[in-house]
Write a structure and sequence with these properties.
mainly alpha
Length: 114
Amino acid sequence: MRGFATLLAMLGVIGLGYWAYHQSILTQQAERRVEQLQRNIGAERERLAILRAEWAYLNRPDRLRELIDINFERLGLLPLAPEQFGRATQIPYPLPPEEVFDSASTADGEETLP
């Protein structure tokens, strides 16, 4: 009986050792994946910063003005005039939806019973 308990305890220790080793491997894999994702996030943030800098450089007012002057006739652009802008009162807002009466209601708003 004592030998069986010892064997059972050894098998339990071996099983727990295997489980702990397996969890250690899974943890290391997860840490490597997290590190890879953090590197990717850093690279994408750097790329985004470069794209924002390029966008700011390309949208400089003096550069855009030069492009407009160069391509004025080819694009058929017209200079801005105050009459080209409208007022807020000229916006056609949609009307609120009309209430839909079902077939059981009458013109007085009273329902008829069957």
